[in-house]
Design goal:
Elements (H helix, E strand, L loop, with lengths): L1 E11 L5 E10 L6 E8 L4 E12 L2 E2 L2 E9 L2 E5 L9 H6 L3 E5 L3 E5 L6 E8 L1
Parallel strand pairs: 1-8
Antiparallel strand pairs: 1-4, 2-3, 2-6, 4-5, 6-7, 7-10, 8-9, 9-10
Length: 125
């Protein structure tokens, strides 16, 4: 089993200041998600401080589940709970950050070496 930890850069493209931003990563069936909260974020600001951990067991990649919630212009937004974008050994060996960009319509997860994934972001109560 090989274990990696990568930094994550989070970038808002909402066109306005974001508040109560939370990004969560959960690897496979782990009961210890990686979570980071920021009180505010300016548009195009690169937020750091989140690191994610994942493993590969006998060439079996597990799923990396990603989730976001935030408030912008007085409205709350989120994405579906079971959105996944896998991280690979190539990502882990790169040492470069995962980049998450989001706006009021979608979130894109861009691993440093493997394929990016996108999910809808929607208004919630």
């Amino acid at each position: 089993m090989t274990k990696w930890t990568l930094p994550v850069n989070v970038i808002s493209r909402c066109g306005a200041e974001v508040s109560a931003l939370t990004v969560r990563h959960r690897y496979d069936d782990s009961d210890k998600p990686d979570i980071k909260e920021w009180p505010t974020a300016r548009d195009d600001q690169v937020l750091t401080g989140l690191t994610v951990t994942f493993t590969v067991r006998h060439m079996n990649l597990g799923a990396s589940f990603w989730w976001i919630k935030f408030t912008c212009a007085g409205k709350k937004y989120t994405c579906k709970e079971n959105f996944y974008c896998c991280l690979t050994p190539d990502d882990g060996n790169s040492g470069r950050p995962v980049v998450i960009t989001f706006d009021r319509g979608d979130m894109k997860v861009e691993p440093p070496a493997s394929h990016s994934c996108q999910v809808a972001v929607y208004e919630t109560t």
